[in-house]
Amino acid sequence: MLRTSFTEVFGVEHPIVQGGMQWVGRAGLAAAVAEAGGLGIITALTQPTPENLVKEIARARDLTDRPFGVNLTILPSINPPPYDEYRQAIIEAGITIVETAGANPAPHLPSFHEAGIKVLHKCTSVRHALKAQAIGVDGISIDGFECAGHPGEDDIPGLVLIPAAAQVIDIPMIASGGFADARGLVAALALGADGINMGTRFMCTVESGIHDDVKRRIVEATERETELIFRPLRNTARVAGNEVSREVVRLLDGGATFDDVRELVAGVRGREVYETGDLDAGIWSVGMVQGLIDDVPTVAELIDRIVGEAEEIIGSRLAGLRADRHSA
Ligand SMILES: Cc1cc2nc3c(=O)[nH]c(=O)nc-3n(C[C@H](O)[C@H](O)[C@H](O)COP(=O)(O)O)c2cc1C
C-alpha cells in the first residue's frame, strides 16, 4: 500500500487516477477503477444531456459501492454546453469528487464545496496550479507536455513541470501525462507528486468501452506517432497521428482557419473511431505514452501491477542502490 496526502484527502486506496476522457470515460471504466482502489472518473460531457449523466452515474453505482468522480471540462466553444446544469446534476447525484479542467473552475467551486464535493483541478502550468490553489481547490492534477488531449502552450514536459509545481503547491498534487507503469509512479513520487493520473493507459484496458482495434493500435504504436493539432490557434491538442490529424496540421500550418478544418475535427467523427475501430474516421486523443503500452490488461490487473511493482522498486531496487548497503 502506498499512502500519500492524495489517498488521505481524496479517500482512495491507491494514488492512481483515471482522468476524464471524452467518449471513453463511461460508467464501466470508472467503476472498474474504483473497484480496484483507484479514483475512476466519468466524463460529464460524453453524456449528451445532464439527465443522461445522472443515468450514467446510476449505472456506475450498480457496478461499485466505492466512490468515483466526474470530470467537468470547460473548453472554449461557440455553442457551450449547459455547464451549470451539468454541475447541478453532479451535485444532485451525490458525487463526492469532481475533476475540473480546461478553464478556471472558480465559477463552479462554491456550489461544489457547499455540497461537500472535493475538487481536483487539472492544469498544465505552474501559474494555473497556483491560481487554482489560491481559489481553494482541494487538489491539483498537473498535466505535462507529454499528455493526451490539451497540453497547453508552454510545452514543459513533466520532468520539469512536476518538481516546479511541487515546490509551490501545498495541497495534494497528482502528476499527469506520460504515465503507464510503476516506474512512472515512483518517478512522480520522487519528483514531489502525491500520485499519478493516467488517460491513455486506462483507454487500453479490458473495461474501457472502445473498439478493440483502437486498443490494438495503441499497443502497436510508438511514442513518435502523435500529432499536435491546433498549434497556430493556440488551443493545442495531442491526438493520434492519422490521415485526418496530418491533414489538419497541414491546412492550419498553411494559413487555414478553424472554419476550414471544422468538419475534419468534428467530435462525432472522433467518437466514430472509438465505436467502429476505423482509425482514420476522425481525430482521436492519445498520448506519447502509447509507446510504453504493450498489453490490454483488466483495470484490476493494471492497478495491482503498478502498485506492486512500485513497492518493489522503492523497497528493493532503489533501496539497494544506497552505498551504505553495498559497503555493509
Ligand atoms: C481519449 C482521451 C480523451 C480525453 N478527454 C479529456 C477530456 O474530455 N477532459 C479532460 O480534462 N481531459 C481529457 N483527456 C486527458 C486525460 O484526462 C489525461 O489528462 C491525459 O490522458 C494524461 O495523459 P496520458 O494520456 O499520457 O496519461 C483525454 C485523454 C484521452 C486519452
Structure in words:
It comes from Pseudonocardia kunmingensis. It holds the Pfam family NMO. GO terms for molecular function: dioxygenase activity; nitronate monooxygenase activity. Helix 3 links the parallel strand 2 and strand 3. The protein has 328 residues and is α/β, with parallel strands linked by helices. It has helices spanning 5-10, 27-35, 50-63, 83-92, 109-114, 126-135, 158-166, 182-190, 200-203, 212-220, 243-253, 258-261, 267-276, 299-320, 323-327; strands at residues 16-18, 41-43, 69-73, 97-101, 118-123, 139-143, 173-176, 196-198, 226-229, 237-240. The chain has 15 helices and ten strands. The structure holds flavin mononucleotide. Flavin mononucleotide is lined by residues 19-22, 24, 43, 71, 73, 101, 122, 143, 146-149, 176-179, 197-201, 203, 285-287, 289.
Q: What's the quick description here?
A:
The protein has 328 residues and is an alpha/beta fold.
